Amino acid sequence: MNPILSIENLATSFHTDEGRIQAVSNVSFEVHKGKTLGLVGESGCGKSVTALSIMRLLPKPSGIIDSGRILFQGMDLAVLPAREMQSIRGKRIAMIFQEPMTALNPVHRIEKQLGEVFQIHFPEMGKKQKAEEVLSLLNRVGIPNPEGCAKAYPHQISGGMRQRVMIAMALAGKPEILIADEPTTALDVTIQAQILELIKSLQEETGMAVIFITHDLGVIAEVCDEVVVMYAGKIAEKARVKDLFYNPAHPYTQGLLSSIPRLDSKRKSKLSIIQGMVPNLADLPKGCRFENRCPMAMGLCKSEPPDILQIGDSHWVSCYLFEKGNRNE
Ligand code: SF4
H or E stretch including 72? Predict the structure, then answer.
């Protein structure tokens, strides 16, 4: 199946007072219609910068796409003129964020804000139809009293409801791709489960592709088909979700997985943590970026960065342990 979105060798950097920060290096992955791809890693690993690069929403003028292609339906979004990008952003590719309060305008009622989104995407829509669409969308995202919610200001509804409103706004343009950046992190577990369920059911209904950004492997297991594990701006491993959980290859992925609690572990067994710190993106090491924390590091790891290697059907890893001659075969 042809991918709906192909990221090829994406590199994004920021120019800061301390110099140039290479936030994303050589990142490649594909997203397929109706499927969910998870981008996972610790904060600062480049997952949100990757999403902002796709949306061309990098902070200006410091954020720059240095190289690579972002192919969407025959267009390269990395170099698309700003005007054309405007007709894609929010409509064909939409994004929801962790904290809806930052995206909602506190001084306007929900109906006005959702109505404006329809106005942008469907300017030909009449006032009456717009009002009906607003209520129908609020209903679709599981808001129990759509009329009441439409009349409310953002601060008058709960965090879970605000996130549902954000999802409604993102869906208004009938996007082909939805990027969800930590959409449930600020919510309690029950609401989190409901929002994940909602995104899944809307995806089944519309066939849209979803890119789910999270630091939570539990969320990945719940909603994703494929996973890209990022570390210090690079891909450490990418695989189908089952392969990643049952057969993690990269020492970083193994570390992440052993740091999540398991139901079948003994009550007093300690969770392992990955020792050490993520390298400074303004002063990256010459070799593998995980070298200072890796229990398997070898001499070579310090001097040169490993290439990404295919180790199975749809399973890729960036680690010298998998190069010929280093494998335990
Ligand atoms: Fe560890 Fe070396 Fe593999 Fe990096 S390349 S993850 S340092 S073994």
Answer: strand 63-72
Residue 259: pLDDT band (50, 70, 90) is: confident
Q: What is the pLDDT of residue 48?
A: 93
Which ligand 1 atom sits nearest the alpha carbon of residue 302?
Answer: 7
- Quote the number of domains for the chain: 1
- Which residues' Cβ are closer than 6 Å to ligand 1? 250-251, 288, 290-291, 294, 296-298, 301, 306, 319-321
CATH number of the domain enclosing 81: 3.40.50.300
How far is the centre of ligand 1, averaged over its atoms, from the C-alpha of 175 (Å)?
39
DSSP β-ladder status, 93-96 and 75-76: unpaired
List pLDDT tens digits, range 139-157.
988 899 999 999 999 999 9
Q: Specify the residue with its C-alpha closest to ligand 1, atom 8.
A: 297
In a domain, 63, yes or no: yes
Token pair for 148: 């009441």
At 243, the pLDDT band (50, 70, 90 cuts) reads very high
In whole angstroms, give the CA distance from residue 192 to residue 186.
9
Compute the distance from residue 298 Cα to the ligand 1 centre, in Å.
Answer: 7
